[in-house]
Design a protein that fits this description.
The chain has about 325 residues and is of the alpha/beta class. It has 13 helices and 8 strands.
Length: about 325
């Protein structure tokens, strides 16, 4: 069980899916496949549709990260929810996208020579419950809590039916969105009588260490601490070097495993990521040596080479010891 494995060593998460897909140079025809030839809008850029139209590409990417040494791979379902799919008029495909995405990852994981766990990726959607997109109407919200819960519930159902081992609520920028995701997970797991571990990973918006909606990381964790999270941590944001002070802070107070999977540095003027595998790995090694990490991997711009370097750098380092936090009232 992963709960036992994480006590023994630092687990390695995979790297970026979007970067890997770009390497294939896929065309609009590839994204459409045979099923969506007459789809009314362009589908190129909807990476999740490739679970249906180019499944072998997705399987090859999963395989490359497994061969690089990943212990956990993420499904290609970051935008497989009705809100995000509305841009491509793919709302009716949500369950299929998640089920297929889970099946592709599970197939590769089960064929691996070492134990590989599959995390069902759940992105934040393109809407926020905490802020209005209209400065002239501060009370306006583009979506309500119940709608977001039902949106996430459909995604969770497909992921669980597809056979994932974990659920990963990632790139969290709004604590209320995250609470909707966790509430949906609770509902679906009760209905299906499952108890999959849940990882949650936030992204910070600036070097003050706050999310887009203004919460500090400590406040965000307090917001979601009612849920028995398997892990909490950071992804995306900046490169590993800039995330070090925030990981240090979390490590002292977080009563669960701590994860980090940063970008390969900040994007350059062309929107590309230049940080080398060696640099990313050395930054994460510094954190691991200081006893700060339980799970490490990569986000935007990271490749199988980054994951291989991270695994080699961390494999001999003991995992972070989870502190015992005295019971007390904490409010956010």
């Amino acid at each position: 069980m992963i709960q036992d494995e994480i006590k023994k060593r630092i687990l390695i998460l995979d790297g970026a899916m979007g970067t890997a897909i770009q390497q294939y140079g896929l065309t609009e025809a590839d994204f459409r496949g045979s099923e969506f030839i007459s789809h009314p809008v362009n589908l190129k850029g909807n990476n999740d549709i490739l679970n249906l139209t180019c499944p072998e590409v997705i399987r090859q990417i999963h395989r490359s990260y497994i061969e690089a040494g990943a212990d956990i791979i993420e499904t290609n379902t970051f935008n497989s929810n009705a809100i995000s799919q509305a841009e491509y008029r793919g709302e009716k495909l949500v369950y299929r996208l998640n089920y297929a995405g889970a099946k592709l990852a599970v197939t590769e994981a089960r064929a691996a020579s070492h134990q590989v766990y599959v995390a069902g990726s759940m992105g934040p959607t393109s809407k926020t419950l905490s802020l209005s997109p209209d400065v002239n109407r501060p009370e306006f919200r583009p979506v309500d809590f119940d709608t977001l819960v039902s949106t996430y519930a459909e995604q969770v159902s497909g992921l669980i039916d597809g056979g994932v081992d974990l659920l990963l609520v990632e790139t969290v920028f709004d604590g209320l969105n995250a609470k909707a995701a966790l509430y949906a997970i609770t509902q679906v797991q009760e209905e299906k009588r499952t108890s999959l571990p849940v990882m949650l990973s936030a992204t910070i918006n600036d070097r003050s260490g706050r999310t887009l909606t203004g919460q500090s990381l400590e406040a965000l964790y307090t917001t979601v601490s009612h849920y028995p999270l398997f892990s909490f941590g950071l992804n995306c944001s900046f490169g590993a070097t800039d995330l070090l002070p925030f990981i240090e802070r979390l490590s002292k107070t977080l009563p669960c495993p701590l994860s980090i999977y940063p970008n390969a540095g900040l994007p350059n003027e062309m929107g590309e990521y230049d940080e080398s595998p060696e640099l990313t790995a050395s930054c994460l090694k510094q954190m691991a040596t200081a006893g700060l990490l339980n799970i490490a991997g990569g986000c935007c711009g990271t490749t199988p080479e980054h994951i291989r370097a991270i695994r080699e750098a961390l494999q001999a380092i003991s995992p972070r010891q989870i502190p015992v936090i005295p019971a007390q009232l904490v409010v956010s």
